[in-house]
Amino acid sequence: MTLDLLPIDQRARIVAVDWNALVPEEARRLRALGLEEGATVSIAHRGVAGGRDPIAIAIGRMTIAVRRAHAHAMEVSPL
């Protein structure tokens, strides 16, 4: 399952990221924020407009807003 499909408040571990699907600068930013393999995350909120962007991801004590395309590049395993 990809992160963009994870139900709200369901915790999951990131098991793989398709870094090649992301712009290199965006990939570096996501890694710097801790969104990489092994991280435990959950979806805190989804946008309500058309594409449901942005997606608010809770990681540790932070909440990070990412585009749906970024979340789609992350494979997760529900906990």
UniProtKB/TrEMBL annotation:
This is Iron transporter. Residues 1-78 form the Ferrous iron transporter FeoA-like domain. It comes from the Bacteria. Keywords: Iron. InterPro entries: Fe-transptr_FeoA-like (IPR007167), FeoA_core_dom (IPR038157), Transcriptional_repressor_C (IPR008988). Pfam families: FeoA (PF04023). GO terms for molecular function: transition metal ion binding.
